[in-house]
Design a protein that fits this description.
Blueprint (H helix, E strand, L loop, with lengths): L2 E2 L2 E2 L15 H4 L12 H8 L9 H4 L7 H10 L2 H9 L5 H7 L6 H4 L11 H11 L16 E5 L3 H11 L4 E5 L8 H4 L8 H13 L3 E3 L10 H6 L5 E4 L5 E2 L12 E3 H9 L18 E5 L3 H12 L4 E5 L11 H10 L2 E3 L2 E8 L5 E14 L5 E5 L5 E4 L2 E4 L3 E2 L3 H5 L24 E3 L2 H4 L4 H19 L2
Parallel strand pairs: 3-4, 3-6, 4-5, 6-18, 8-16, 9-10, 9-16, 10-11
Antiparallel strand pairs: 1-2, 7-17, 12-13, 13-14, 13-15
Length: about 475
């Protein structure tokens, strides 16, 4: 590492280390990852740019408080196993978070160098260690069993973060998952080109090595409930992390036509059930030629880019506000446009229309203009009178957000919900039932992977404190 008088000196003039991306016209033909990540030389070069701040604001921006300067220092030293050990003290999902976390709004957004648009590529460095240092790192320390049993409902990021934290502190943890495989939204919601499924499986396998048990095809609230888990199966506490996967709809005429999907269904068919390989696999989905996706977040980007990979001639992303106001990560918007997704801002759907066979064939839109800010601080869109127009559309996907799943009330009837159906929980995840904690999207509404993980970790420590009292 660069030194002056035996002390580390950052390479302050070096630009942010680039990574190799697959060519857009090639990667849009299949589900290969968009980029290849850092090589060892790249990772060391990027680590040598870190200022090693005395007051590391990057850590403050991380919802699980990873010791970022600590693992970057280990990369500089070439001690990659030691770097991964440091990350694992706070997070068991480095390969996942390195790929899908919105670093630009969190750790990298707080980086001192961000003022010059040269923030350290913290996400790429975390991903590098997660992908390459597993065999070099130590297995996480596991405390002796304390005889306490905890049920975790849901194997998404919040559930598995909670499960891992409890397991390595000596708790017997069983994760109940409704699907036939683990990972929750990491598996069914995020496409292969952003997060390869083998990466998620590897992280789940790591939890099993810690002693976490997974019960798949287990819908808590249908085949069992909190009462049975506590009174008959002997669990001492429960963590509800069932997500918020109930889709929101446009509520316009024709939305029930064949060929109109919600993003949850569209992405799950492809990500989890391999619909792109029909009839090799049993679950089909319609491969449209003119696809329109409604929304401006990461899910909308995922749906649009998936449609391209399913062979669409045109994919249009229609959004009520402007491109600058889209909530999607800038990188996802950039990659979508590179691959050929067309952005149609300031429009709203009025009606889907069918062809002679009853399938959606076009959508009627109206143009919008931005007025005063709404309650969220964003400028409210208003329709422009007389601006209606139509575009062809043989597949439409709505990706305008989600609502709370109905399972919490079925699983634990004494847990209080707010008026929107989300679980009411305090800052540590405690609910109105003293034996039950909750976190992730079922408490906050749709948020990020790392925020859900932070909630799971915080709830685990609150649970341990209560059970050990």
């Amino acid at each position: 590492m660069p030194q002056v008088n035996g002390k580390y000196k950052p390479n302050m003039k070096a630009p942010r280390t680039p990574y190799v991306e697959e060519l857009p016209e090639e990667r849009a033909q299949d589900f290969r990852p968009v980029d290849r990540g850092y090589s060892m030389a790249d990772a060391v070069a990027e680590a040598n740019r870190c200022l090693d701040c005395k007051n590391p604001k990057c850590v403050q921006g991380c919802p699980v408080n990873i010791n970022i300067p600590g693992f970057i220092e280990k990369i500089r030293e070439g001690n990659f196993g030691g770097g991964l050990d440091i990350i694992r003290e706070a997070s068991l999902l480095p390969s996942v978070c390195g790929r899908v976390c919105p670093q630009e709004n969190q750790c990298e957004g707080n980086c001192v160098l961000n003022n010059k648009d040269r923030a350290i590529a913290i996400g790429q460095l975390e991903r590098f260690l997660g992908d390459n240092a597993t065999e070099l790192a130590h297995d996480p320390e596991i405390k002796p069993s304390n005889g306490k049993k905890v049920a975790v409902v849901g194997s998404g990021p919040s559930g598995i973060a909670c499960a891992g934290e409890l397991a390595r502190n000596g708790y017997e943890v069983t994760v109940f998952e409704a699907f036939f495989t683990g990972g929750g939204v990491l598996t069914y919601g995020i496409p292969e080109f952003r997060l390869p499924k083998k990466i998620v499986k590897r992280e789940i396998d790591g939890l099993e090595k810690l002693g976490v048990k997974f019960e798949y095809n287990s819908v808590v609230g249908r085949i069992t409930d909190a009462k049975e888990l506590f009174e008959e199966q002997g669990f001492d506490a429960m963590y509800l992390a069932v997500g918020a996967g109930l889709p929101k709809f446009l509520n316009v005429p024709g939305e029930n036509l064949p060929g109109v999907f919600c993003a949850n269904e569209y992405l799950t068919r492809v990500n989890l059930m391999k619909a792109e390989k029909f009839p090799e696999f049993d679950t089909p989905t319609k491969h449209g030629k003119n696809v329109v996706v409604f929304g401006g977040g990461n899910v909308a980007m995922d749906a649009a880019r998936t449609a391209l990979r399913l062979g669409a001639d045109t994919v249009t992303l229609a959004y009520r506000r402007t491109e600058e106001e889209m909530p999607a990560r800038k990188a996802e918007l950039h990659h979508a446009k590179q691959e050929g997704v067309k952005i149609l801002p300031l429009v709203s759907p009025l009606e889907f229309e069918a062809d002679e066979n009853g399938f959606v064939s076009k959508v009627k839109l109206e143009r919008m203009e931005l007025g005063e800010p709404d309650e969220s601080g964003r400028r409210r869109p208003h329709p422009v009178e007389g601006s209606e127009f139509e575009i062809p559309c043989d597949v439409a996907v709505t990706a305008i957000g989600t609502n709370a799943n109905p399972f919490p009330k079925l699983a634990a009837e004494d847990v209080a919900l707010n008026k929107w159906g989300y679980i009411e929980a305090d800052e540590n995840g405690r609910t109105s039932d003293p034996r039950i904690w909750a976190g992730g999207d079922i408490v906050t509404g749709a948020a990020t992977v790392i925020l859900a993980m932070g909630a799971g970790k915080k709830a685990a420590h609150s649970m341990m404190e209560a059970l050990e009292a």
